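Question:
Write out your own:
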Amino acid sequence: MSGVRRLGARWRRRRPLRTRLAVAASAAVALVAVGVCAAAFFVIRYELLHQLDLSLTQSATRVIQENRGEGPQTVAGECRYLSAPACAQIVPADPAADPDAAYLLPVATPVREVAAGERAPYYSNVSRFGQPLRMLTTPFGDGRALQVALRADPVEKGVRQAAVLLAAVGGAGVLLAGLLGYAVSRTGLAPVARLTSTAERIAATRDPRHRIALPPGPPGRQDEVTRLAASFNTMLGELEQSVSSQRRLVADASHELRTPLTALRTNAELLARGDRLTPAQRERASGALGRGIREVTGLVNDLIELARDEEPLPLLEDVRIAEVVEHAVAVARTHWPQTPFLLEVGAGAAEAVRPGVPARLARLLTNLLDNAAKFSPPGTPVEVALSAYGSGGTGAGGPGSGTGLELTVRDHGPGIPAEDLPYVFDRFYRAEAARALPGSGLGLAMARQIARAHGAELTAGAAPGGGALFTLTFGAQGPPGGSHSA
């Protein structure tokens, strides 16, 4: 049995899905067709025999009524002909009471038992005159039994004809089942075939712009295969967007690296001929080389940080957001001494904690504060406010875990033009007014990535009275354990 199973499993593995589906559908329909034909055969056979048995019962009733009180004898013996009445004979329980003439029908021990009342009436099949007979043995009364027989060959012929006809119908049903199975597999798997063809074309051309044609109709009434094709199209769209984003990132990174690398090579070549330079020239070249190295190092580190989006989740800890904000503001004050940083921590926000990585949250806030300070005129403040909203209370995450947190960073610079707002968080995007300022255009993109990894949302907008306003919103719950890298 296990060998048969292994053969079946090996056959299934070596056959395509269309063949397996066609065989399965054909086998199911063929099994139903054969089952129906077999059931019909047994029903027809039963009805034909039942009709013959009813005729025997009627003949026995008539003989009993017409021959009451008669002794053992052969009552009628013309059943050898199809149109003749049934053969009938009266048999006693005691063989000594048999008549001198031989009986027409066979008399066996069960017949004597029926005559003696020791056995119930029964039907049997016998053969006489070279023809099959159907015989009924029933009590006649006073220790006698009545045997009645009719020819059974018409019934047997009808049963054979029904068997041949139903076999032909069953064979046609099996053939039709095979055709229907093939049609069902071909039609049902047509979207899968298109999906496979599209996937193979994408694998060959590496072009994710291909799509699978979907049948018209509302999305709620599509079948499973159509929904699979629609999901595959959605996946292709995401893949195309990812590939485009990757290509754009590589192109932007190469563009951003070209200028500092060129400057590094120029300064390195200049320093290689240091004997021709004055001490002041060598000092300027060395300083420019150091600044270029720091710029390239920062750009490469930013790219590495952005590429960590798919890393596994590191070990999280409960972080008091207010402390991280205070630390980031203190660092920003040392980096931007000409820019005042005003910090306000609202009631309920000082003790609020969220699960996260302190270094990553500090990097997020540093990027926001550096961006605000870069665009603020000297002497104008950068306003930082941390506030709590929601129901409040103490939860499993510590004080304030049941509330939401909102951090705003507002500067008094030129603000963000409306046409630039949708792109401020894109990698390497820099507005016209910012292209003359230092930076790589990765700070805000990194800030949004870190925010989303911590279950927060970072948005940008115009501040009332001028300037830019960045809002970092933490929900009432921390990020799930299986989220992106923090």
